[in-house]
Every structure is written in C-alpha cells, then in structure tokens.
Design goal:
Layout lengths: L4 H8 L6 E2 L12 H7 L7 H13 L9 E11 L2 E9 L5 E4 L2 E4 L4 H11 L1 E2 L3 H10 L2 E2 L14 H16 L11 E2 L3 E3 L11 E8 L5 E10 L7 E2 L3 E2 L1 E4 L3 E4 H6 L30 E7 L2 E6 L7 E7 L9 E4 L4 E2 L8 E8 L13 E3 L8 E5 L13 H10 L4 E5 H5 L10 E5 L12 H12 L3 E5 L3 H7 L3 H10 L2 E5 L11 E4 L12 E4 L14 E4 L4 E6 L7 E9 L6 E7 L6 E2 L1 H16 L1 H4 L13 E4 L6 E6 L7 E7 L4 E7 L3 E5 L6 E9 L2 E10 L2
Parallel strand pairs: 7-8, 9-12, 23-24, 23-25, 25-26, 26-33
Antiparallel strand pairs: 1-2, 2-3, 3-14, 4-5, 6-13, 9-10, 10-11, 14-15, 16-17, 16-24, 17-20, 18-19, 18-21, 21-22, 27-30, 28-29, 28-31, 29-34, 31-32, 32-33, 35-36, 36-39, 37-38, 37-40, 40-41
Helix pairs in contact: 3-4, 8-13, 10-12, 11-12
Length: 701
C-alpha cells in the first residue's frame, strides 16, 4: 500500500483540473485501502456481497483525493478528408478505494462498473480510446503479470498485484505526482459491439507495454461474473466536446455513423454500454410535437424515478447544442425559429441521485402555426450494425424539403396512447430492418394502423424485413394484416433469393407508378452513410394495389414498392398506402430521397401541397428545359423556340419564398445560384402575369 509520505507530495503538487468526479466528500473515518481489502478478502464472501460492499464505499465517496480530478484526452479521426476530434475527461487511474497514501485498485464486474458509471455520469473506454489514453498518459507503467492459476480471481491475488503496481508507481514520484494520468497497470474492461455478440460477457483489452504494444487483444471469452487481478475499470465522463465547441456525449459519438470513427475502431457501436444496472431507463415512449410558432413540446410516458430531462437540440441532426435541463412537469422547448426543422434527443435525469439515463433516439419536428403536420413514427429498435436510432433525420429532411412539416414519436408512444394517429392526415412509419426479433408491427400496432386506414388515413411505411416478419414468419393474424392493409404478397427475403447483390430499383410499370419518370433508385450497401440493406424483401401487389418499383434484376415481377388508394377492409373512407420494402432512409443521394418523398406526397395530397400554392402548369408550345439538374451552383434555362417577348424568371425555395427574380431576354439564360443553400427550388417563367411553366431544380453542393 501507499507510503504515508506520499500524501505530503500530493498536497505540495499544483496541478490544475477542469473536471471533477461526481462523488461526495470522503469521510475522515472511512476505511483505507488496506483496511477495505481485508474486509472483502474472505473466500466465503459471494461476488454479489463483495460488489455490494464496493458500491457502498464508492457511493459514500471513499476514493482518494487524487482520483477525483479528471484528465483531458483527445481522440481524432479523418472523416471525409477533414480531421475531427473529441475531447473527453478520464479518471487518472483505475477505480480505487481508500486514501491517497493507502488505496486499493478494485477489479470488478461490468455490472458494477455500469452501476457506478450511472451514478457518476461516467462510461467506459472503447478499444481505440484505451490506446489514446495510453498515448496521453504521463505515467506509463510496465505490465506486471502474475502466473496464471486458480487463485488469480481472488482478493488476495488482487492485493498482491496491487502492491506490485504500487511499487512501480512510486518510481515516478515526485516528478509525476498522484493525479497525473496513468496507464499500463491493468487491462481495460471496454465498450464494444462484442458485448452483444454473446450474452452475459465481459469484453477486455489492452495492458500496454511501454513500447506501445499490448498483452491482451480484445476478447469476450470470459463471462461477465469473471474478473481477475488484471481487470481494471477506467471511468470516462460521458459528456464531452466535439471539435472544441460542440457539446455531445461519448455514447452519442459512438452511435453516430458520421462520428463513430473518432472514438471507435470497430464502426458504430449501436448500444455503447453494458446492459446492466442503468439506474434510469432510457426514454423509449415519447413524442416531439409542435406547441407554438416558436416552441416545441415533449410528451413522455411518466417514469416515477425521473425528475428532469436533459434536452439536446439540433438543426442538422449532427451538431447539437449544450443540453438544457428541464423539469418533467414543463417539457417545452422555447425560443425556436418558426417553420424551421429541429431534431431533439433526451436523457432522463434524477435530481436526487444525480443519475442520468442513456441517450434516447432522435425525433424531429417543426414549430409552426400550420396545422397540417405529418407524423413520423420511429419503429426501428432492433440492435443491428448501423442502427443509430436517428433516421427521423432523413425522413424529416425529405418531408421538409417538400414543404411538408412534421411531428414525430416513438412507436411505443402510439400504443401508450401519448399520440393518436387520427390527428394526422399522413403517417410515415419507419421500420428499417425491424424483424422477428422485435416485431415490425405488433398486434396492437396493427389494430391502430387498420383503424387509421379504415377512416381515410394516408400511410407510408418502409423497411426491409416487414414481409419476412409478418408473412414469411408471422401468425395467421399477421398474414391477414399484411395482405389486407399492406396490400402485399411476400415473395422472398431478398430479390432473386440472393442477398447482398441487388441495391437498386427502377420505376415499373411506367404507366401506373406514382413515380413518374424512369429513374433508378439506389439504396445503401453499407458505404453510403446508413447501413447495409442486404436482405430487402421482394414483394408483389395484391387486393387492388399497384406496383411502383421493381428490383433491378432479370425478374421484373419482384417489386420493391407498391401503392393503393381506396376503401380498406372494414373502412368507410378512402385511405391511401405506400409500402416500400427497403428502408427509405437508405436511399441515396439525398436529392433522390427528396424526389421519392415528393412523389409519395403528390400521390397523397396532390401537387398543390408540395408547391405551396404554385401549381405546375402545362408548358406552352415553347417548352422549357433546365440543365444540369441536379447542379452544383448554376444552371441554364433553355426555351425550345426563340422568345417573342422577354420572360420573367422567378425562383422560389421550397417554403414558397421568392429567392431570385431576373429577366430572360434570349432563348437561353444562365442562372448563377452559387449562394443558394443546398435543396430543391422551383423555377417559374412568367409572360407578364401569366405563368408559362414551372420546373423543379435541385441544387447540390
């Protein structure tokens, strides 16, 4: 154990810290490290009792003073040729109990580590972060393994190894006082996708030598109840900063496909935590709704353990403002810009314990005075690589680009009756790769959707496993719902019964498809920003439905999208359906996704709803073309015949606001729109006050 004289050395050191571990002050009568080690040394003490005793010490604040000050570490990655970084704060050593002069490094299970992290607002490192912590450490110890044997998971061996680490750490004093970042004394229990590869496992990695190599490759070979003397718990503050200015969390970065490589070398970690002892449950049943023209409101299923919510807002779905903590009795987000699209995610918070939940999924909404919002329902909760739980971003943007505002909720908010489908003329239900594991549409959800369609609702739903789940592997009731209300026949789990080959669809049949041009619609194979749709259902229309898209295979009867307009079984009013058998959010590029959504909305509501009162008129005999379209900042308008008189060119953004007006004197006119934001615009040509034509143009930057 530590020499008493080390306390004086620590007190004489002057190191500035900006982040402090969230624990109460240590009692003067608390046990020292060696005293506590003696209390848990008995071989007859169960793991549960031992870990309860460790937790009681941590809750009471029995940790050394030096351990309370967190050290800054920065991890970086080059993403799309731009260097990105996250700055986070780590504990200077593995979790100890005791005082500065006498502390005991405590190996523990991931269950207990998760419980302590929930208590303190901390998490664990990933494999990449362990390497970055080692690089940043001012004190790099040489590993001191003990010969393998049956006693290596006992407390006496823990204590023996602790004394070896103690002696090695002493060699760095006084030049490197306690509180400076240490690495090399133990392996790390890490966050990884391997947590979920096999149930009830602990994932370990590291134990770096001073030359930068390490002893332990990442593995989940051990059960989560196993720990030996080498298993260390490095706590990391979950709150961190992206690129020096954007508040975020470790968990959010790991969940984001646009940021994960900064902290992870194994891709997105969809659930970056161990599934144990999260003191507060992650919010799963909630909605984001319009409130006033400058505010939104959250409606959340009551959790008696929650007093507040930390609310993160963003206008692009990537960069979030620092969270605002609000009481659950007043879940209003004020001070927003009218008619602007916002993205929101939340964490539950208990003011009594200071505990927070994990981050929720992302919802989207627009504060507005309009009362025609569509509803986005986020139903993709299956744990698969690439599910970032934020696909309301792609759907919300596509609706917004087509002048259709949105509110949103999780699918549990529907069955918990927080939100009613009947209040919305159109519903977009996101199902991604939801399948038999979690059920694409539960029986309760099927009832709500059937009622909605029977009363004249308009439903758009997309997902690659809906047919496989409901028809291929479903009950008799599932199959009936699939045929009567999704109007489809399930053919196979992938086009041509071949996975990971076909990633595009084409408009067919041309005469009856709601998609009016012979375009190819591509969806992601895992390299275009979302996830690999390797098993998109092949389907066919039945019961009055019509095909829209078929897969780009030699089999032209395996369809990818169908539509229907009519009275549904048991209904009294005309409802409408668009069912896409691959996920809408995986369509790329964004301009194509917006165009697909435009055609769906025109099928639902007509062109008037899309063009904000400016209807597409038939062109005159002097037809007009625009090229290139899409473009990178400029385009040419060309009339088929010479002009008899000058025309006025008026360009509108998707909200109907005129952004440019010019006169067209000749048969061709170059438009410089380099200052336009990326998006969809409407180019209208007028002869005096008479509208001659209107054309959609896509500006891509």
């Amino acid at each position: 154990m530590k020499k008493l004289s080390l306390l004086l050395l620590l007190l004489l050191s002057t190191v500035a810290f900006t982040q402090v571990l969230n624990l109460p002050a240590r009692s003067k009568t608390a046990l020292s490290g060696s005293q506590f080690e003696a209390t848990i040394a008995s071989s007859g003490l169960s793991l549960t009792n031992r870990e309860n005793m460790i937790y009681a010490q941590i809750v009471a604040g029995n940790v050394p003073n030096f351990y309370r000050n967190l050290d800054s570490v920065t991890s970086t990655a080059t993403i799309k040729s731009i260097k990105q970084k996250v700055t986070y704060y780590v504990a200077p050593d593995y979790v100890p109990i005791g005082i500065d002069s006498d502390y005991f490094l405590c190996p523990m299970s991931p269950m207990l580590a998760t419980k302590i992290g929930s208590l303190t607002g901390m998490t664990l490192c990933t494999r990449k972060m362990v390497g970055d912590v080692w690089s940043a450490a001012k004190v790099k110890l040489s590993p001191q393994p003990i010969a393998p044997g049956p006693l290596m998971s006992t407390v006496p061996v823990f204590a023996h190894h602790d004394s070896l680490v103690d002696s090695a750490r002493d060699n760095f004093l006084p030049a490197h006082p306690l509180g400076q970042l240490v690495s090399g004394d133990q392996k790390d229990v890490v966050i990884s996708n391997l947590i979920y590869n096999t149930a009830n496992r602990v994932v370990i990695f590291g134990w770096y030598y001073t030359n930068g190599t390490y002893i332990q490759p990442m593995t989940n070979v051990h059960a989560d109840t196993y720990m030996d003397y080498s298993h260390g718990i490095r706590l990391v503050q979950n709150n961190c900063t992206l690129n020096d200015s954007i508040p975020t969390t470790i968990q959010s970065v790991l969940e984001a496909s646009t940021e994960d490589s900064i902290l992870s070398d194994e891709g997105v970690i969809a659930q970056p935590w161990y599934p144990y002892w999260i003191t507060l449950k992650t919010p799963l049943s909630f909605a984001l709704l319009r409130n006033t023209p400058t505010s939104l409101k959250l409606v959340i299923k009551n959790d008696t353990g929650v007093t507040h919510y930390n609310i993160y807002t963003s206008t692009d779905g990537v960069n979030y403002h620092e969270y605002v903590k609000v009481p659950k009795s007043n879940l209003v987000i004020p001070g927003l810009t009218t008619d602007k699209l916002y993205f929101v995610k939340i964490m539950a918070y208990d003011s009594l314990s200071g505990a927070t939940s994990s981050m929720s999924e992302v919802l989207a909404a627009v504060p507005t005075s309009r009362n025609d919002s569509s509803l986005l329902v986020s139903g993709f909760e299956r744990v698969v690589v690439g599910n970032t739980y934020n696909f309301t971003i792609q759907h919300g943007r596509a609706l917004y680009a087509n002048n259709k505002y949105t509110e949103s909720c999780t699918h549990k908010a529907i069955t918990d009756k927080l939100v009613s489908l009947k209040n919305y003329s159109a519903v977009d239900w996101i199902l991604g790769e939801e399948s038999t594991v979690d059920s694409s549409f539960t029986p309760a959800e099927q009832n709500y959707i059937a009622t909605y369609l029977q009363h004249g609702g308009y439903l758009f739903t997309s997902g690659s496993e809906i047919g496989y789940d409901l028809s291929g592997a479903g009950s008799a009731a599932d199959k009936l719902f699939y045929s009567n209300y999704l109007k489809a026949r399930y053919i196979s789990d992938a086009p041509d019964n071949t996975a990971s080959i076909y990633y595009s669809s084409i408009v067919s049949p041309l005469g009856t498809s709601i998609f009016g041009v012979k375009d190819t619609v591509n969806f992601d194979n895992g390299t275009h920003g979302t996830y690999n749709v390797n098993y998109p259902d092949a389907i066919a229309p039945i019961n009055g439905a019509t095909a829209d898209l078929h897969y780009n295979t030699s089999i032209d009867t395996e369809y990818a999208c169908i539509h229907y307009a009519g009275v549904f079984n048991g209904g009294t009013k005309t409802g409408k359906l668009v069912y896409m058998s691959y996920p809408f959010e995986t369509i790329y590029p964004a301009a194509t996704r917006d165009t697909v959504m435009k055609d769906i909305l025109i099928f639902f509501f007509g062109k008037q709803a899309i063009y904000t009162g400016i209807d597409e008129a038939l062109t005159t005999s002097n037809s007009t073309i625009i090229y290139p379209n899409p473009n990178n900042g400029s385009f040419t308008i060309k009339c088929s015949q010479p002009l008899q008189a000058p025309l006025q060119v008026k360009i509108y953004d998707i909200s109907g606001r005129m952004v440019m007006e010019e006169t067209m004197q000749d048969q061709e006119k170059l438009i410089n729109c380099s200052y336009f934001s990326r998006g969809i615009y409407l180019v209208a040509l007028y002869d005096g006050e008479v509208l001659q034509s209107i054309t959609r143009v896509v500006v891509v930057k």
